[in-house]
Amino acid sequence: MGNYRARRIKGTLLLSSESPSIKKAASILQNGGLVAFPTETVYGLGASALDSSAVKKIFTAKGRPADNPLIVHLSAVEELESVAQNIPDQAYILAESFWPGPLSLVLERAPAVSPLVSAGLETVAVRMPDRSEALNLIKEAKLPVAAPSANLSGSPSPTTYKHVIDDLAGKIDAVIMSTPCAIGVESTVLDLTASRPAILRPGGLSKESLEKVLGMSIALSGKSHATHLPSSPGMKYRHYKPRIPLLLVTGSPPGRKKILRELAAYYGKRGKKAALLNFDLNQHTQRAGDIDEIASKLYYSLRYFDNKGYDLILAEETDQAGLGLAVMNRLAKAATRIIRILD
Fold it and tell me: What pTM was estimated for this model as a whole?
């Protein structure tokens, strides 16, 4: 068992991020088990991408639809050819600039990867996470790791190990305990199998950064170019949704702020406890801090409001430059209702 210190909750092993614990977690992956681990974006739920039986356990534990593909995580660029084939030069250009980091590339799947990872498609999304625990785990396991977010399907993604325990204790083999995930939203998914690169899911790397490196404009796509089936997580099903209602107000800044103040007053008079997201009633502005800070706290806030007795969430639209595109994508999918204010 080694000299790591561990404990269990409901049958799930809680491991530290120290080397002996990483070795134990790697052994679990090698033997077809499930391990939740931190990345720079959110906590992932990992299994061997080469083992269909192990991959199937991910879908079972999360309650995830089988046609919602997973992302394969690597520990080095040199591993890319083990999971993808006919790799375009653009992939290596982007990997050199952004790996390790929050960028997933959709490429042609190599035969070694379980087809369950790709929901039966001939493509696979691949990334190299920018977090030492994740890289050390993958390197120690000596295999590519398929990993969606480590939460129950449809709920807000986990950014702390406690979120993982809340959702999946007793359903998975182990969780690596560490500090919260810094970026707070999932990776950007970029499809390189089409004639023109397209973002299938906005995330932790901005569209502007990608366009600068590639020297070309990038499309924003809501569907795969080749099929009606989703080729990226986050494209088809409702995601990121808190248990309580979330009202998202969009439109011109003066109009949306006015409506938010009126909604807060309306629900307050009726004894409803409304949480405010990205909005400060006193300042009538978005909360202090840049969009990176808003993104890093998004899922944490949704889970916090769920668990602290709030009746609903009132959220304001954010600017869609940089990480704002990803934040708005998540808010729109989480929203019970979107209120659009016309100029």
Answer: 0.91
